[in-house]
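Note to self: user wants both folds in one dump. Writing first protein now.
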Amino acid sequence: MLRKTIILLLFFAIIACGPGKKKRTYSKTRTVTVEGSTEDTLPRKSKKEERISEKAEAIISTAMSYSGTRYKYGGTTNKGMDCSGLVYVSLKENDIMFPRSSYQMAMEGQKIEVEEVQKGDLLYFQTSKSGKRINHVGLVVEVDGDDIKFIHATTSRGVLVSSLREGYWKYAFVKAMRIL
């Protein structure tokens, strides 16, 4: 009886699994074609997006022209400037009126997530250990994946481009705002 049960179970197991070798249901050669995308099928920027992008590039170009300028508290010229002076002048030279100090600037525009940051957006920092308000601002000049580069003025090195990945700036970062 046990022998018949084992044989029956083996028989059903073989039938349930089907034949050992499956037959092909397609031809041996398959042809696959892929059409390349043309410019007509790629998403295009709207006129408004193009204007914003051009404005951002103009503001960035103005800010970059101050690269290497020494730091001067309250300064707004190529003889010396502070972080908010750099942003203020770069915006003003491109016909955008904006507050002069970083904590007042931080109240303008639309708050955005870091993942949404684009060229021309502003980054705000709180660098003072004792103070509780924003006291530093930078202008985004490049976004490459999760690496965000911004131009700003530091007390030690003047106007330069830094990365939000750098430990100091990553730790001091408070928020990002879109103004364009």
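First done. Writing the second protein, which came from a different request thread.
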Amino acid sequence: MKCHNCEEQGLEKRFKDDEVDLSVLKEALKDYRDSRNNLITALQIAQEIYGYLPRKALYFIAEEMKVKPAKVFGVATFYTQFRLKPIGKHLILLCQGTACHVNGSEFILNALCDELKIEEGETTEDGLFTLQNVACLGCCSLAPVMMIDGEAYGKLTPDKAREIIREIYSKEKV
């Protein structure tokens, strides 16, 4: 079943079309597939399984839950919790909240982009890092702050941010 609305709006192109094992998702959704009210839960489960929302999984969810693919694509693109592409092994969340902004988060972003050779929202070529801006991490007293794999790094300077990335890279090489 194709999603003509999705094609018209260019939504399909935003989702990676990887081959994925849908049997794992089918088993995980067995308690949810008969209720349209569980669409967000189904998407969360799919993202937990695959690390992001592959296109084939979205069509599968639509079929299993008996909803139009356009609705599934719409929900997946509306909520920021959902990832449309695979992320790196280490997810860097850089706070752009007011406290971080006034304390120089844009300089941290520039340093990270330069160090990683990527732009915000991208993943490094080696698949190790994904860099994402977030509205707020709730660590205002540490501004500017970033979180990597759930660990907060605060009172950042561009040099300190680069150093943290280099330390993680060096641990990866070992």
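Dump finished. Worth passing along: The beta strands are 90-95, 129-134, 146-148, 151-153.
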